[in-house]
Amino acid sequence: SQPPLYYFLGAALTAWVDTADFDDVYQENPHPQFGVIVPDGNVVATLPVEAKADAFPWQGTVLQARLVRSLSILMGLGTVWLTYLLGRELFPDRTAIAVAGAALVAFTPMFVFISAVINNDNLSTLLATLLLLLIVRLLKRETPPGYTQYVVLGLAAGAGMLAKFQIGFLLPLIALALLIISIRERDWRPVVIGGAISGGLTILIAGWWYWRNYDLYGDATGINIFLDIVGRRDTPADLRQLWTERETFMMSYWGFFGGLNVPLPDWHYTVLNGVTLVGVAGLLLPVGRWLWRTGQRLWELRRYSRRMIRFYLRHRQRLERLRRLLRGIAGTAPKPEPDGGLFLARVMTIIWPLVVFLSLLTWTQQTWATQGRLLFSAIAPLSLWLAYGLANWARNSHRVRWVSLGLFVAVFVTLATLAPFMAIRPAYQLDRDANWPRAEALETGEMFTIWFAEPGEDTPALEMTFRRITGTIQPGDTVKFAPHIEVLAPMTRNWSLFVHLVDTDNSRQAQRDVFPGGGLVVTSEVEVGESWNNRIAVPVDPTIYAPQTLNVYFGMFEMLPGGIAGDRMTILNADAPDNRIRLGQLELEPRAFERNFGDQLRLTGYDVSARRLAPGEETTLTLRWEAASEMDTDYVISVQVLKPGDDHQIAQNDSPPEPLTSTWETGQTYTHTVTLAVEPGALPDRYRVMVRVYPAGEPGSPLRLVYGTGGQSESFVWLNWIQVR
Description:
By secondary structure, the chain is of the alpha+beta class. It contains 17 helices and 24 strands. Helix content is 42%, strand content 21%. Strands 3, 4, 6, 7, 8, 9, 11, 12, 13 and 14 form a 10-stranded mixed β-sheet that branches. Strands 21-18-16-15-23 form a 5-stranded antiparallel β-sheet, with no helix packed on it. It is globular and about 110 Å long.
């Protein structure tokens, strides 16, 4: 689904670079958390490159990456320049708007970030802006376009379709522009010949790629395979759910860095959204002024209407002769031609962002991709119209307009300049003295020291100093602590740390796996003597079973390819046969929770008899329900035990509650008890209980969960973990 032109260009630019060191330089973070902001960091998608490998003069893979990033920067600069040219076409008598629009593009923090990384959006944004400029110039031409214009249009469209499928939505606008020109000129050649040349070149350049996708995947765009890889929403999002994701959408338009897990400071978004509101209000300002003037005229007309009527009746003949005289004089003067081409060009630059936005909504309904940066193919017209709206507040003064737009641009320049220092660098820089606020940490008592060694070694490689963890928590809380870690000897492997919250049945109810230092410490590359406070935050699921006692265990392990847990580091100075050290014990107390299934019935709690089972054994689950409204439908409650991300159930019970839901009374509480038998062939692993609700006889139409914000993103709720031994 990602057309290859950007990657072709990058490969052509760097074909001469020897990248034999790729496996040594490029290492993926085995614990990525894309799109999730976590308290203890872990923002990196790839492990930090050694300073010596990244030192100038660059070589190998680092040189290749730098060259392709430079290519991206040139594409970003090209988009800025094309935005200026587009602004001159749309607002020919207002150079300030063109300059300000280009500056707003150049200093949108997320645009700066994307323009400096290896990302095919840079080429697609450049070509989308170029195509929009060509369409605008076509519509503004006073003479029919020639063959050169058709060829350029076809080359740009073909390249665009090889850059990103989204540009395909510009093709109907190209066809519409050619049709408008044919109608205006009363000439069939622009739409027929122009369409044949531009369309033929588009197919010639990009058609092979879409035929390849169709031949391989049965889908010309390849989107079906892309969705299979990145994952689909369990339930397609409706408009209410998409509305609840608007904040993330705006954040990722202005600046949401890393893997959508490094946000700007909150006040940055407030300022940028505030400028946008001022600009939108400025776009509406001419309408408000027209309504005000019209109201004033109507009021004046009301006051003088009777007097004017009497005057007209008294001097009707003289007024008629004067009207004829003025009409004759006006008939001899040249009539100004309305600039219909400019009007249509402006309309096109309004239609394009709307088309991109609607296509993005359709895409986001299917997968978790609420990213405002995907609007960047329309960032040029969006920024120009924003500049136009801002300029409307000073429309009567050329000098004031330049000054006011300059001030708004200065805001963008300031925020874009601050972003690397206030958001990006702190997220990717190890804070060796980091600690949690005293009120948030659960550490108490004296200090203890544990030594870790690599397997088969007797010499400690890591020393961890910690305090015992004790206290009371509730579902939905986060367990925070910060042990101190020091490197005592070189290490040959990249070790991860793990924290497990384990119940009395030795079943993990919560865990945290991450590279040390919030993903920033690569143990095979650290120097002896380095040390740091390692902040750790373990989230406890809000629907986990309570009350229960949880033991906190810590250890170091190697994550192998494929997400397989490998060896653990050996604990030398404590009795730890499974090489994990018990840090303390927590009491998990119940917290009221509610899950609303389709505004029909609410799950308000549950009890489970056993959470550690062998194949063939049974456990009993009692669900507590409340009728949210009167129901005339009998629903079935489906309880399944499976691994998240895997559709295979090792236990399942689908049954209607007693009494049937059609007889439930609003506000009343009901219980539903089911027995779950683990299938005999179930493999030892951690599984989780999942609950769905669907109308009897319609398992494919489950009720959606309704949240307080109105969102409806899922049709199930996860409950407790089950350990199969």
